[in-house]
Design a protein that fits this description.
It contains three helices and two strands. The protein is α+β, with helices and mostly antiparallel strands and 74 residues long.
């Protein structure tokens, strides 16, 4: 099954890469393209950090941590 959440959790642990929360985990599309199912485009985040990445105030703080995570997986 090629649903983006399935692809994400086959390639990443099912927990927020920022804080490790694993009860509710969202999938963030790094490039904003929901048809891009590349595992490095699908980043597991808790609802709180997923909301933060979509705000002007906290985006850069979260983006930096996502970029660090991705650079270690390449």
């Amino acid at each position: 099954y090629n649903h983006y959440t399935t692809i994400c959790f086959k390639n990443h642990l099912k927990k927020c890469i920022i804080c490790g929360f694993d009860k509710i985990v969202s999938v963030h599309h790094r490039d904003g393209d929901y048809s891009n199912k590349d595992p490095l485009n699908l980043i597991p985040l808790c609802p709180n950090h997923h909301s933060m990445i979509h705000t002007k105030l906290y985006k850069n703080e979260i983006l930096e941590k996502i970029n660090e995570y991705v650079s270690k997986r390449i």
